[in-house]
């Protein structure tokens, strides 16, 4: 949430910062701004709306400078507006600050600044408090880092901030507390950013900044200090993503590109964990058979789409490894005093690895003694760093706000974890394991073939795009996929969609069925196929328009459906890897038909680093 870029070096700061902000727009896009230091004076340009509005505002002004900070915002305090856009400055414009996160005691600090220092506030943001605090401390401090340090001593909350000062012009000072921050190491130019894609074009050598640390960045050095202001030595992290991974490469939207990247993501995630004989490699993971035997319970905790991957995880882990699994949304988990102890395995799932709710739940579980295994896409992210063991998903950078390839790679990890546990505990046979691995390895190829036939779904979307509400139903694993399909549709097309276990319909929700109500019915589970057909008949009898998703070969469903989308045949447990794809595509094409901003839906941001 909110993207930050800072630059100090040889080139024009404005160009580097605008370029970096464009790569971070997925983090927030309701306003954008930039502050640069020119002749020891800070100049600010900011505008409500996307980066293009900021570029129009800057126009031909070169804003030539070697030091600057920029920000793309996802509003928390104060509506999206020019005045609430970052950077924020202090009274005499000698300090500018960008911030990602929330200053929890900002109201108290604001009152103090007004009453004791006569500060006049311009915006409704919590961030402006930081600019005034740093400005005040700057009067008595020798350096910007001293002033920022003093300011942070008064602040509570979660934040990543970067400050520049007119009187200390070739320097950026940044602090990280529970919000992501990295520093990029160049030659004669150095960088600060919220996330790697912002810097891919410029540097591949990154310092991952830890919680509580301060970074002082000049053209020739990056110095990291711990909470006690002791300098720390940090290994350089070499980024393996290439620039293309963060570009659209001819696709109209990142979401479409990422849907098409799923075969590659799944096979990469499998290949990283399987040796040439199909045996699972647990490189870097220290879970032993004894550990697995010792766990009495597993919690899978995550948010949104990652939570939906957890639902599938629960089903397969319980089925293969015979350990009870609870799945919870992270924002609820830590406030319900969960029953966690040393015999608990806590699995966190997160694409970004920076979702604050997930991170907070993980910390709560750790505090209570749980062993933490995380399933994360972003290497070196907070969730990864704070876990005992990490299972990486190898989806590559996911830029579209709506998660697609992260989800299918998370599912892939869930299968690997469940199989590994099952085999280690002796609750599945070697034969079952070998066959399942073979079946999993066939999925990328099947998906590749399936993705050649997207025209069918585009055509359906053109007919069905103007529905006001849509229901998703399914049984067993299909009900988990219904939740994901429904979330995808609502977040990018703004259609009011609702998912429910098909057998539960008759206990209330069926009251909403009317002639023409669109229902996406998932019927990919052979074991539940006939029961699902009965449920479809019940809604058909009330006039619903039924678009079904079934496996090739299961044609009987055509009698009860208005249309059927067929996915390649596969075993029931694996079907989610295939059945979610037509739902992603349906959401995509419906949103396109409705003229929605697909990669950056309203009110959303990719990485949710506030509670
Ligand atoms: C939906 C979506 C969100 C995320 C959720 C968790 O398409 O992307 O629901 O899945 O915010 O994010 P991560 O996985 O980064 O923890």
What are the salient characteristics of this protein?
single chain; about 600 residues; alpha/beta; Glutamine Phosphoribosylpyrophosphate, subunit 1, domain 1; Rossmann fold; 3 domains; eight-stranded antiparallel sheet; seven-stranded antiparallel sheet; 18 helices; 25 strands; about 35% helix; about 25% strand; binds fructose -6-phosphate
**Largest sheet data:** 8 strands, antiparallel
> What would you say the CATH architecture of the largest domain is?
4-Layer Sandwich
In oligomeric terms, what are we looking at?
single chain
What's the total count of β strands? 25
What sort of overall outline do the alpha carbons produce when their principal axes are compared?
Answer: globular
How many domains comprise the coordinates?
Answer: 3
As a percent range, the share of strand residues is: 15-25%
Concise description?
The chain is α/β, with parallel strands linked by helices and 611 residues long. It folds into 3 domains: 3-241, Aminohydrolase, N-terminal nucleophile (Ntn) domain (Glutamine Phosphoribosylpyrophosphate, subunit 1, domain 1); 248-428, Rossmann fold; 452-593, 3-Layer(aba) Sandwich (Rossmann fold), CATH 3.40.50.10490.
Topology (SSEs and partners):
Elements: E1 3-8, H1 13-24, E2 31-38, E3 41-48, H2 51-58, E4 67-73, E5 88-89, E6 95-103, H3 106-117, H4 127-138, H5 144-154, E7 157-165, E8 168-177, E9 182-185, E10 190-193, E11 205-208, E12 214-217, E13 222-225, E14 231-232, E15 237-238, H6 254-260, H7 262-273, H8 289-294, E16 297-302, H9 304-321, E17 325-329, H10 330-333, E18 344-350, H11 356-367, E19 371-376, H12 382-386, E20 389-392, H13 405-425, H14 430-450, H15 455-464, E21 469-474, H16 477-493, E22 496-501, E23 518-523, H17 529-540, E24 545-551, E25 563-567, H18 575-593
Helix pairs in contact: 3-4, 4-5, 7-13, 7-14, 9-13, 9-16, 15-18, 16-18
Bound molecules: fructose -6-phosphate.
